[in-house]
Amino acid sequence: MAQTLMIMANEAGVGKSLVSLGLLDQLERAGVRTAYFRPVRTRKDPHTTSLPPTPSMDRPTEHVAFDQDDITAAIHDGRYEEVMDSILEVFSGISTSADVVVCEGVDSVRAFPSLDSDINLDIARSIGARILLVVSGKDRTAAQISEVASVHVQKLQQSNAVVQGVLVNRAAPERRAELADAVRSVLRDESIQLFGVLPYLSALDRPRVSAVAATLGAQVLDGHNQLRTRVEHILVAAMGLENALAHFRRGSLLITPGDREEILLAAAAAYGSAHIPRPSGIVLTGGFEPRRRVLVVARDLTRGALPILRVDTPTYETAIAVSRIETLLDMHDEDTIVTVREAMENFVNIDRLLAERFTQEQRVITPRRFLRDLRERARGHKKTIVLPESEVERILLAVGELRRHDLVKVILLGDRNEIERRAHQLGIELDADVECVNPREDAAFEDYVQTLVELRRHKNLAVQTARDLMCDRNYYGTMMVYKGRADGLVSGATTTTQATIRPAFEFVRTQEGIQHVSSVFFMCLPDRVLVYGDCAVITKPNAEQLAEIAIASAATAEAFGIEPRVAMLSYSTGASGKGTDVDLVREATELVRTRSPHLLVDGPLQYDAAVDPSVAQTKLPNSSVAGRATVLIFPDLNTGNNTYKAVQRSAGAIAIGPVLQGLRKPINDLSRGATVADIVNTVIVTAIQAGSGANR
Questions:
Q1: Which of 242, 395, 217 is nearest to 317 (CA)?
Q2: Which CATH class is domain 209-324?
């Protein structure tokens, strides 16, 4: 049965969502199966719904029983007990698939001021939750914090609630340690456990431009791709240009009458000037819109990097509205997740909070944990990955994401000035760990030409032909990997798979003992990570090839932390089917067992028998793989490619790949429809392959 912890606060604005997100993150990282339950969603965040999620799966799925309007109407109609029954029903549905349920309590005083009882206590009793009380440390002394915590813990205990302990949030950073010691001492005397004191995280209280636009109902004239920018300051720029410039600060949101075109142009000029602090955005008030030519000039100066908003309200009314924006926690945002994670790791005693209740047997690899572990491993290896397609916007945006989190070093192939110009337009900072190399001007060009001639001497490759090939960025990047200047290559956002992997086949070649290069996809489903192979390279494998694919895929899975249980897929399960196709799978299965006797493998298996325990119990009850498979080997490319795409689209899975296996050095291909998130994930996987030999 799932253990449940309710995050409850004694007042509004304490930061329950922050604590909930941080706790969920820590549990996921520990491998504990979790669920996030919000009995009542008291408010919807208008700021994140208009934005696409960042390349991450770190946002927990919210299981919500009621929206505030619905539950308020039900309670008003005298259906309180019905409400409690419904909440329990929703909770029961999610608790069966989790070891721990984190339940975020309701701001009951603000949401339900007319209730005689505390709805949180009723919910906690109904679902059997222990309570973690979150107390605000904002503008309070240690004595005040201790008194507030003590009074409310006693109140909860008098109501027969089980209180796990107290966590203080929003404490003054410069006094955090002092407050923690003092509060812990007082609460210890009252047998109340203090699990940590979190400092006030000012970065999370700065709204994004998207929040400003949503709150004001603004028309976005430009800068749609930069609405995630945080507002550091608010500047009412109603003065003359010279005075306004004196007040410009980096990250300021400028609020100015819409007919003050000189302020708009000055804000735009900041994007090309080292002397004018770059604003986060500009709000044009009073219903005025710049003349078309002025707006065109602003767009040319910023290349769309400056959010330009237009509103009908007057300047000062607009400024007041912006100043009153309540910043809500954005669980889509990678920066938010990292900030919360670091705070929880540094200032909260998670082990004591969880009381070491979770055993190794309960730990599984969830998609969020898998993707997070990939990032941490890549950061640890810090490998250099070459990206030939520097002219592609998605590539540059991916580089920005990779460098922002210090995951890999990058080599971009192309003209340095053009790369830097385009990166600047996109608001991407290319730091010292991003190298721009123009193959035609690179000092190593002729050396690479001669190396290629030597490597392809058996093909009588002419020097001029080698020189022409080295002008191809995929060839040049692959040679950089071959020569050790880079650790891996990722390409294919605008070219074919053959264009990406042909150079690798010609001179990087396969590992010793490996006859064929194959591939896998990591399929991040909602509740697990599976490995699919081969869905991209070998069109119609024979039994030998299929066995090699299975063994290589199992090794890849293991290298990435997934226990390999290999299912050899076919249209029938066990001995029920006949025909050349199923016989081929049966033969390949026996070859795997012979060559890798330690490997858990079974086949032929149908997909449902491979992954669904109830189906496996009926079709192949004695199998050590059926119903529990983690590595699924498809009989041919036609089946595999279509299946991975069907699962990706219909189940909303994140598909990472194709990840090539069997090459001496990691070279990976992108789909031409690859998103920024796809590119980031593929680069991360390539870096891990380079660091651990996982491509072998």
A1: 217
A2: alpha beta
Distance CA 41, CA 104 (A): 9
Please name the amino acid found at residue 611.
Answer: V
Rounded Cα–Cα distance for residues 337 and 22 (Å): 8
Nearest of 102, 87, 133, 62 to residue 329 by alpha carbon: 62
8 A C-beta contact, residue 279 and residue 254: yes
Residues paired with 171 in a beta bridge? 199
Per residue in 302-334, is it b (16+ CB within 10 Å) or e — as a string?
bbbbbbbbbbebebeebbebbeebebbbbbbbb
Question: Is 230:211 a contact under the CB 8 Å cutoff?
Answer: no
| Spatial distance between the Cα atoms of 508 and 384, rounded to a whole number of angstroms | 17
Q: What are the two backbone dihedrals, phi and then psi, of residue 454, each rounded to the nearest 5 degrees?
A: -65, -45
Cβ(566)–Cβ(601) under 8 Å? yes
Minimal CA–CA distance to 331: which of 623, 58, 646, 579? 58
Per domain, the residue ranges of the chain are 3-202+333-345, 209-324, 377-509+664-688, 511-662
CATH no. for 3-202+333-345 = 3.40.50.300
CATH topology agreement for domains 3-202+333-345 and 209-324: no
Q: CA angle 530-536-539, nearest 5°?
A: 120
Tell me how far the alpha carbon of residue 443 is from its chain's centroid. Answer: 38
Provide φ and ψ at 534, rounded to 5°: -95, 130
E strand residue ranges, 575-647: 600-605, 631-633
- pLDDT, residue 549, reads 95
Q: Tokens at residue 109, please?
A: 């005083």
* Measured CA distances, 132 to 121, 123, 337, 679 (Å): 12, 14, 21, 40
Q: What is the pLDDT of residue 686?
A: 95
Per-position b or e across 510-538, b if 16+ CB within 10 A of its CB? bbeebebbbbbbbbbbeebbbbbbbbbbb
What digits encode the pLDDT tens for the residues 485-533? 999 999 999 988 889 989 999 888 888 878 889 999 999 886 688 999 8
The residues near 516 (Cβ < 8 Å, ≥ 6 apart) are 510, 538, 541, 545, 548, 549, 662
Q: What is the pTM of this model?
A: 0.57
Query: What's the confidence (pLDDT) of residue 45?
Result: 45
Under DSSP, the state recorded for 174 is G
Q: Which CATH architecture has domain 511-662?
A: 3-Layer(aba) Sandwich (3.40)
Distance CA 601, CA 672 (A): 34
Residue 111 confidence (pLDDT): 53
Contact predicate 126/156, CB 8 Å: no
Q: What is the pLDDT of residues 358-380, one digit of tens each?
A: 333 334 465 766 887 888 899 88
Question: What was the pLDDT predicted at 644?
Answer: 93
Q: How far is CA 674 from the centre of its chain?
A: 16
Fold (CATH) for 377-509+664-688? Rossmann fold (3.40.50)
CA–CA distance, 563 with 623 (Å, rounded to integer): 16
Residue 313's pLDDT is what? Answer: 95
In Å, what is the CA distance from 646 to each residue of 267, 523, 633, 643?
46, 11, 16, 5
Segments in 364-482 forming alpha helices (H):
367-381, 393-404, 416-425, 445-455, 463-470, 473-482
Ranges under pLDDT 50 in the chain:
45-58, 116, 356-364
